[in-house]
Every structure is written in structure tokens, then in C-alpha cells.
Amino acid sequence: MSGYVTLRERKDAKVAAIKAGAAELEAVLAAYAREHGGRYILFGSAARGDARYSSDVDVLVDFPIEKELEAWLFAERQCFDRNLVPDIHIRAWRTDQFVSRVEKEGRELR
């Protein structure tokens, strides 16, 4: 055995890490949402289970306006703690069309 790690093996390991991190993230965000009266929606490739080695983690933050920033910062911190690249959106800043699509394809966490 050569001790070399192939590019394919590195990419596969990164995908596994993203999937594991996203699973942990779901539980943490759901608990936070229940405790603070809002919801997160995980969407995109991490939610579908088809993340690639370069995938980010898409999260919609839907909390009362006075709690939005704290909820956004919490989600970002939890992503960084799991070495995930966050792409976080606040509900109030997105169109109804965008939110409708996310609600249909994503997983609600609360």
C-alpha cells in the first residue's frame, strides 16, 4: 500500500463530512427553533442528500423580526463549528416565490 490518498478518496471523505455535519446541524437548529419560537428550513443539496465535495449548506431563517439576527448568527456559528460552508437567508429578505420553493423542497426544522 502506497500511503497516498487519491483525489476521489478526498472528495468522498469531504462529502461524508458534509452529510454528517448537516445531520448534526439539523438536530441543533431544530432544538434552537423550538426554544426560540421560529423555524429553520434546510434546503438544497444538503437537504436532498446529494451534496458534493464543494457544497454549501443552505438555510432559511424564519423567526420573529426581533430574533432574526440572533437566529442567523446561531445558524452560522453552528455551520462553522462543523466545518460547513453556510448560505443563510432571512425569510423577510426573500421573495414569496423563493420562500415557497424552499418550503416545498426543503426540510422544516422546529
* CATH architecture call: 2-Layer Sandwich
For the record, the CATH class is Alpha Beta
Which whole number gives the mean pLDDT?
Answer: 96
The figure for the number of domains is 1
| General form | elongated
Strand order of the largest sheet: 3-2-1-4
Structural class: alpha+beta
End-to-end Cα distance, whole Å, is 47 Å
Number of helices: 4
The major beta sheet can be summarized as:
4 strands, mixed
Poorly predicted sequence stretches spanning 5 or more consecutive residues: none
Elements, N to C (H/E):
HEHEHEHE
CATH level 3 topology: Beta Polymerase, domain 2
Number of strands: 4
* CATH superfamily annotation: Beta Polymerase, domain 2
Strand proportion: 15-25%
**What is the CA-based Rg, rounded?**
15 Å
Helix content: 40-55%
Task: Report what the structure shows.
The chain is of the alpha+beta class and 110 residues long. It is 53% helix and 17% strand.
